[in-house]
Write a structure and sequence with these properties.
Strand order of the largest sheet: 1-2-4-3
Radius of gyration: 26 Å
Order of helices and strands: EHHHEHEHHEHHHHEHHEHHHEH
CATH architecture of the largest domain: 2-Layer Sandwich
Helix content: 40-55%
Distance between the termini: 44 Å
Structural class: alpha+beta
Strand content: 5-15%
């Protein structure tokens, strides 16, 4: 499967838990149904199950395979999207999840939470290192886990005080809420954990997404882990339906991937040159902000208002811009905004929100972006982390840690240990792919993110649901023109 040695830690476990009964036959059946004058074509018809002659069934299978290959090569991939596959994954790193599995829109995951489940020692990826390099790697991770445990202890009184400041009435039953406070302490302490930390999860994708995984698994930032997991997922697919071999393409070699060729064009070495200049330029553009609106347009409100009028078939003399926007964005006029079941993409009027667009430049922690990227309809140009790494600690300090000097110093110490370990591995010639597993959750991620108002509204509703009433978003969201806008 792979010329490189496997990880020294327990290998990733992949199991197909749910799938269509005949997914490949279904893809061809759906395609043939498009041109059928005799109704729905079934999987049984596609495979020739009713034919008594073995040679006739074999010819039917050959015709099925030819059609599937033609559909695939012509880009008619919707037929392959009907069949979905649910996998359970274990012993995969947080880095793998962030850089590969969750870096695109077409998936669904439910994974163990580091925010509310304590991370146990020993549960982390160990790349194929040896000698001094392995000692540095393991020693760094051990120090990170020790800092995690110590910070969890140090943070408890701070979290407790903040919790009861917000919920004063609960102080009389403090013991009842101790577990909730412990979870909040874990949430802040996790910033020092390495992205090598294991996760386990359910992950569901359609057939074409699974084929894409395999085709582009050998790319930055974790090609070895990506290829191992993708290969196992494909092996599971072929186990239940070997017919997919007809359209399966082998992975694009790492050296031929778009990003690697771009670095070659720029004359950057295999492990990439430190990019301190870029980091300074990006941070200067943020001007001290966490998130800055860099792509506002004065056409958002007119576009939204006109779309509403188009939907209703009325002119501007009958419905001016303000009234039109209120019909879509004022919760008093649009009760769908308060529905538990997000109806935005189904409602004709609310779909008008698609026409207002916003672009943000952001700098947040690796762990915060792991939450942020799960809102799959607010896509971002996330970085090749290997190109952002320098030998200087570059991280985001949790707000609560800034309020207590001993806690702040402990975080700083943990960050210095992490970056020292990575720098030492770099000097030993360890591939950047492996040293980056030591990056802490607090590591800064810089990127640009764009979205439309419909999906921005949903994202902010979900992210702010504990801080404000659900119906807090009115049409004033279309007036996000302060370039110093901060994202909570």
């Amino acid at each position: 499967m792979n010329s490189q040695p496997d990880f020294l830690s327990p290998e990733p476990e992949v199991r197909l838990t749910q799938a269509f009964t005949r997914p490949f036959d279904n893809a061809v059946a759906t395609a043939r149904t498009c041109y059928s004058n005799s109704g729905i074509i079934t999987e049984e018809q596609v495979a020739g199950d009713a034919l008594p002659d073995p040679e006739a069934r074999a010819e039917k299978a050959r015709r099925r395979d030819r059609l599937a290959r033609d559909l695939y090569q012509a880009g008619h991939h919707t037929t392959f999207q009907h069949a979905h596959f649910q996998f359970s994954l274990k012993n995969v790193s947080r880095q793998f999840l962030w850089t590969f599995l969750h870096s695109h829109p077409f998936y669904n995951s439910e994974q163990v939470s580091q925010r509310y489940v304590e991370v146990r020692p020993g549960h982390f990826t160990v790349p194929p290192l040896e000698g001094k390099a392995l000692g540095i790697y393991l020693g760094t991770v051990e120090s990170q886990h020790a800092a995690y445990r110590e910070l969890n202890r140090m943070l408890f009184p701070l979290v407790e005080a903040e919790y009861f400041r917000r919920f004063k009435g609960r102080r009389k039953q403090a013991e009842k809420y101790r577990r909730a406070i412990e979870k909040k302490s874990l949430e802040v302490a996790r910033f020092v954990l390495p992205v090598a930390t294991f996760a386990y999860l359910y992950h569901t994708v359609n057939g074409i997404t699974l084929l894409r995984y395999y085709r582009l698994c050998e790319q930055f930032d974790a090609p070895m882990e990506q290829k191992i997991v993708s290969r196992k997922m494909v092996d599971e697919l072929l186990r239940v339906d070997p017919n997919y071999q007809v359209v399966l393409e082998e992975p694009i070699p790492f050296e031929e991937t778009l990003e690697r060729k771009a670095f070659d064009y720029l004359g950057m070495d295999r492990d990439l040159a430190p990019s301190a200049e870029f980091l300074r330029e990006f941070d200067d553009q943020l001007d001290g902000n966490v998130s800055r609106l860099v792509g506002p347009t004065d056409q958002n409100e007119p576009l939204l208002a006109q779309a509403v009028r188009e939907i209703l078939g009325v002119g501007k003399n009958r419905l001016d811009d303000k009234e039109a926007i209120e019909l879509a964005l004022d919760p008093a006029r649009n009760p769908y905004l308060g529905e538990d079941l997000n109806l935005d993409t189904v409602s004709k009027l609310t779909r008008a929100l698609h026409h207002a667009h916003y672009t943000f430049r952001k700098k947040i922690s690796h762990t915060a972006d792991s939450q942020n990227q799960r809102h799959r309809m607010t896509p971002a140009s996330r970085p090749v982390l290997a190109a952002h790494f320098t030998d200087q600690p570059d991280y985001v300090l949790p707000a609560l840690a800034r309020e207590d000097e001993p806690v702040r110093r402990k975080y700083q110490e943990a960050m210095e240990i992490a970056w020292k370990g990575m720098a030492e591995l770099d000097r030993l010639g360890v591939p950047r792919e492996f040293s980056l597993y030591l990056l802490p959750n607090a590591a800064a991620i810089r990127f640009t993110e764009s979205t439309d108002l419909l999906n921005l509204r949903h994202k902010l509703t979900m992210r702010l649901c504990y801080l404000a009433p659900r119906l807090f978003l009115t049409y004033w969201l279309t007036r996000i023109y302060d370039s110093g806008y901060h994202q909570a």
